[in-house]
Amino acid sequence: MASKNPEGGSADVLELEDKLARVRSQLTSKLDNQKNLALILTAVEENIDEQKNPRTPVAYFVSFLSLLEQSVVEDSVADAGVAAAAAYFLDLVLPFTPAPLLKQKFGPILTKLAPVLTSSDAEAALVRSSIGALESLLLAQDHQQWSSSGNVSPKRALVGMLELSFDPRPKVRKRAQESIKNVLSNPPASPSPVHVAAAMCGELSLQRLVTLVQDAPKSKKGSSKESVSAIVHALQLISAITSANAWPPAQVEALCDVLLEVSRTSDQYLVAAAFSAFDGLFSSMSHDIDVEKFTRVLDIIFDLKPPVDDAHLAASWLAVVANGLQSFARLSPETCVAKISSIVPTVAEFLVAESKDIYVSASQCLIAIVTECIPDNFLLQPTSTNGVTVEIYETVDETVTFLAEFIEKELFSIKYQHATKEILELATASVLKLRTRANPDFIPIVETVGQWRSNEESNFPHNKEAEDLIAACISTMGPEVVLGVLPLNLTGAKSNEPGRAWLLPILRDNVRFASLEYYKQNILPLTDFFSAKIAAAQNKESMHIKIFETILDQVWSLLPHFCDLPTDLPTAFSDEFASSLAELLYQKVDLRVTICHALRLLVESNLAYSEGALADDLLTQQEMPVSQAKDNLAYLSTKAANLLSVLFNVFSSTLPDSRGFVLETIDTYLQIIPKADLETTFNKVCGLLKQALDDEAAAADKPGKNQNKKQPPQLSVTMMDLVVAMAKYVPESSYNALFSIFSSTVAMDKNALMQKRAYRIISKLSESESGEQAIRRFIGDIENVFVQSTGATCTSARAARLTALQSVVKLLPPTDLHFIPSVLSEVIMSTKDVNERSREASYALLIQMGSKMAEGGVVENNKVPGFDPQAEASEASLTTFFTMVSAGLAAQSQHMISATITAISCLVYEFKDQLPQDVLIELASTVELFLTHNSKEIAKSAIGFVKVEVLSLPEDLVRANLGELLTKLMKWSHEHRGHFKSKVKHILERLIRKFGVEAVEQAIPEEDRKLVANIKKSRARAKRKDAAGDAEAEGKQEKKFMSAYEEAVYDSDSDASEDEEKKPEKSRRKKGEDKYILDTGDEPLNLLDRQTLAHISSSKPKKFSKKDMERHNVETKNGKIVFKDMVGKNDDPLANKSSGIDAYLDAVKQAPVRGQKNKLKFKKTKDEDNWSDSEDEAPKRKAAIKESARGRVGKPKQKFKARKKL
């Protein structure tokens, strides 16, 4: 608040006026307190204006102060409402009042505020505002005022505020604590940086806390809650004082002592409050001048170290130590690093504790010390630019050596055996923090842990933690360092060393930024050894051979990870190594995925690194500069041409379903190949493509066998795939050849595979900037090719064509907008395509065309095929585009009309906010006419448009046309086929939600109002079920749609009600399905036994008594139950018939017969001759009558029959 009035009077008047204006605006508020404030402000301002005084902060201050004085009579509040308003405005105005005035009139102002602050009957809002006013008053006082003593002085006022910080009302207490913090954080100008009243506040608050803590054990059980609350309040006040960096140094030791004493309680609120006080103490010391003070605080905390086995205090003390050291590391990192060697042994003493909670807390504290107290930049080599000096480097080096030796020689001793898991976690965290600086100090630790892991006989219980440590060492120090002390020994060369095949998966998951040469020399030769073993084996199915094959696969799986940003790429990836990989690509089909992955990672890792992927990793940046990654890419570009030749050959010999990974690798090397080599390679591929097309054309004239699906595709298709892959990267000199291939292959109406790939050339080109420029340059020719090939497009190539059209329309210049109407009819027809990808592409293309037309331009209609050459040009706009689309409504075919309505629905949904209302009305009225069409295909699309209309168009527009709309729509409410009836019902439900039942009932034809009544009953039933907690739809997966438009058209919120109507009895029955475990006698139920399911029943088991057996006429014979009534029930049902003829006659009577219109009629099972016309399965018979909840007897009500979901 002091910042609002820094110079004692020149406050931001505009800010004050803005706050007062917000209060004035509440004159019409429905809340009485807000309205009362606005009325009082208005009255005060009228009074100021009558006296012809300007509305300055001083005028407001004097007016509201006198108003407060009038509301207080004989030190008690007479008018609480006026007093609260006056205090509120004083809190608002005082920060903007000139400081000299507040200094001069401090005594009178405090005297007028004091009755409100000290009144026991004052409301919380009044006291809070008065505290805010007092805060502003204290902030305005200078050092001299604060140093004075007396009954009316700033210190005396602050003491009163300290008392209010213990007020039982939470908001009053919080405001007082915040005010104290603000006052102490902004000391008046003086030689001392600490506030004059800081010592007094610290002493009083600490004294209050000590008293409360000492009295707490003496309190009775009933008052323990109150004493805990009082201690929490005192701790909150101390947190406010410490956060203001105002705690007196002389009281630090006493504070730490009592805070640790509070921390040993089991009450989580007290512990949290004590830690908050520590946090405030630590965070407040954030300047260089506080280093000495912070060091003393830490020394005091360590002097207060509790006994190792103190279950209550140890964990709290360790948490405080970790928090304090983290804060100290931010303040003085160099000093903190130097302290680690003396701190770690002290904390490690708690690892000896028998209590698991204590030694786990100790390990977490040690991990926090290591990871947070050593800054990342301190691990760098000293240079003149990174701020790391030789002294810092040596300090860190000594610390690393100390940590390694302490872990190996001290923590790995038998004394800490019970905490081995936690110690291994500490070692892992240390290695991950220190990275390469852990080498060579941590190598003995790796060797020891590796021996523990390798010794299978000892059954080491912490293998996971040991493997985590080894994995951390591999990822930070490198695999060559780890394998140097823990060799794989898979060949058995060293008989005294154990084999470590378990290291292979760990290597695979953690190797990165390693030496590729090391893999070549030391790991890759293992493949030859095990391949020879497998080849020499007679029994290929033996267990040993399976193990050898697994090891062989694991060794090869390491190759991609050693190729992930290798440190020695130029020397390791030699021509010899590259040729050996190429040979393996040809010879070993099962290794192609692994080798291609490795080749791809060589490029991708260096590309990502050179583009700043690891810019935040300072240590990696120092060990491998970005320039080295760029050099690696330059080196790989010299090998790219030869590698691409190999990959092309592999690609052409691989089946289409299994060569995606090869194409990804090709794409990676096309990014780095030199332009000259790329052009040469492209020309070769074009030559092979032409030759393949000629050969295939010649072979087509000769009769031959059809191609086997398991054989590689035609060479022309493979070459075309390569052309598509290269299209994005070819230089400008190759664009003529590329577009020539496009124009010639698009016309192949009998070769769908080639046509599809031809369109992909345009899509691929548009992915690069140079490709987009090329499309713009040849845009006219491309447009002509698309227009001319409209009729020659294969069905399977349509999705690729539409995707390519999106790229062309996106780049259309304003002068070529005639291309849009030239292909518009094809796009509209594609909305009805069977292929979902084609439909989605057509929707996206329609929206893109609309956006392009909305940008403006000229449509030269004389250039559109089929238009009059003398047709005039039209201005491009969204309305013009809708006119073009609407022309399809006049088509002769029903299919085209239906597709046009679908297209209009999609466009209206997308552009509803940009179209004029008259256009929307015209579109809606035109499409609604087709609701009366006899064609179901057209009507179905029109109903879809109505749904979009109801969802998207303005309410007033739909309401005005509601009667006419429903009259036309209800024609299809009786049509069951094609889900027409259910769709109409969905639309009605939407309308009812939007306009209410009454409006829909008035607008709907009278003969169809029973449908509205049915919907009302369904909704009421659904509400009753929801109220009963019977949420049937819970747990069902939501339906997914490809686009927002399709979701709007096809989704419906009424599915729940539909489901509810479908099978109410079934759902009701399912809800109560419980499972019961049958009594198994004296033996316990074995849940691992497969026979357990036999003891689980869906019906509640019942024990039969003797009376039950008599009532049900049950006899027992030889321990078995015999049911007399059931004897003969399972016999032949025809046994009671006199002859087979009687049975035949009964069967004939019960059989269905053909009625009118050849429909099956089923006779009811009662005596009456009642027939039902239905070809559906006869429903289960219900009771003839049922009793309602009110005791009346009524008939089962007929339900609406359209129960099928959309």
In whole angstroms, the N-to-C terminal distance is 63 Å
Level of helix content? 55-70%
Rounded to an integer in angstroms, the radius of gyration calculated over CA atoms is 43 Å
Strand-residue proportion = under 5%
Pfam family, one: RRP12_HEAT
Family: Belongs to the RRP12 family.
Biased composition (Basic residues): 1192-1206
Biased composition (Basic and acidic residues): 1106-1117, 1177-1190
Describe the 3D structure.
Residues 29-240 form the RRP12 N-terminal HEAT domain. Residues 1048-1081, 1096-1117, 1153-1206 are annotated as: Disordered. Residues 1048-1059 have a biased composition (Acidic residues). This protein is an all-alpha fold and 1206 residues long. Among the domains are: 285-471; 916-1028 and 1042-1063, no CATH class. Helix content is 61%, strand content 3%. It has 57 helices and 13 strands. The strands form six sheets. A three-stranded antiparallel beta sheet has the order 9-10-11, with no helix packed on it. A two-stranded antiparallel ribbon has the order 1-2. A hairpin with a 2-residue loop joins β1 (72-73) and β2 (76-77). α6 runs antiparallel to α7 (124-139). It is flat.
